[in-house]
Amino acid sequence: MTGAADLPAWAALLTALLVLLGAGLALVGSIGLLRLEDFYQRVHAPTLGATLGAGSILIGSMVFFSVLQSRPVLHEILVGVFLTVTTPVTLILLVKATHHRDLDAEQPATKTEAGDDRPAG
Amino acid sequence: MTRWFPFPLLSFALFGAWLLLNESLSPGHVILATILAVGGALALTALEPPGLRLRRPRAIAELAALVLVDIVRSNIAVGRIILGPRRREEISGFLVVPLDMRAPYGLATLATILTATPGTLWVRFDPESGLLTLHILDLIDETAWIAIIKGRYERRLMEIFE
């Protein structure tokens, strides 16, 4: 955090809020991974951190570095693009694999009991 | 030119992304970026991607704004479900939506949108019957979900890609 002390108060506050919001969403997503009941439900949870969570951390980072004018804020845009393009690939692959296995094991749609306790990937 | 740059836009994007990531315009990085730009485009040629034509820039902007709003909204909704009390009744489940869209890039975009939105998950799509299977975390009203997917997303995607 080079030069963090030079940051005006409003920018520091805004950055802190955005980063905390992002971290909070990632935390809620992780709690969801723990609390939700079967695999399909749990896959929904981490997308909180990957979308709005990552977004607000990136915006926080943009505010920080634009106010300090230490570098152009293009990295954040790239991170956002890469995240958006890659996350669905992983999630869809995981879900497809599970669905395939469940179809083999018959009646996947009705299997939403709490006893369906498999690791969430 | 077309031999080395069959996909000029992709080559340009790769070139630009490499230099941006490294924050450098030194000759070494320019050479690496060029190799990446040419190599990436050649690799894509091997995959023989179907041609892409985009229409209606207004529909693109409209869709992007809608998706942004929906992502924020569903983040809040899913966050509530996670932090709320354990649900007694099981309300998440699979939903089958008949799609009219066949454009490959449109389907890919729909998959990205649905997966990136917390609460909806792309499970599988059968190109022959056009049936899309989704998993919905909060499946209270099936017809409402179908209306959202068909009316809100598919219609606009078809305007853009077909």
What can you tell me about this protein's structure?
The complex is a heterodimer of chains A (121) and B (162). Chain A has one domain. Chain A is built from 4 helices and no strands. Chain A has helices at 9-35, 39-44, 47-68, 75-104. The two termini of chain A are 34 Å apart. The model of chain A is unreliable at 111-121 (pLDDT under 50). By secondary structure, chain B is mainly α. Chain B has helices at 8-22, 27-47, 57-83, 104-116, 142-161, and strands spanning 93-98, 120-126, 131-136. A 3-stranded antiparallel beta sheet of chain B has the order 1-3-2. The mean pLDDT of chain B is 87. Chain A binds chain B through residues 25, 28-29, 31-32, 35-36, 40-41, 43-45, 47-48, 50-53, 71, 74-75, 78, 84-85, 87-88, 91-92, 95-96, 99, 108-109, 112, and chain B through 17, 20-21, 23, 71-72, 75, 78-79, 81-83, 86, 90, 92-94, 111-112, 115-124, 133, 135, 137.
Could you outline the blueprint of secondary structure elements for this entry?
The complex is a heterodimer of chains A (121) and B (162).
Chain A: H1 9-35, H2 39-44, H3 47-68, H4 75-104
Chain B: H1 8-22, H2 27-47, H3 57-83, E1 93-98, H4 104-116, E2 120-126, E3 131-136, H5 142-161
Antiparallel strand pairs in B: 1-3, 2-3
Characterize this entry briefly.
The complex is a heterodimer of chains A (121) and B (162). By secondary structure, chain A is an all-alpha fold.
Task: Label this structure with key terms.
heterodimer, A: 121 residues, mainly alpha, 4 helices, disordered C terminus, B: 162 residues, Ribosomal Protein S8, Chain: A, domain 1, 2 domains, three-stranded antiparallel beta sheet, 59% helix
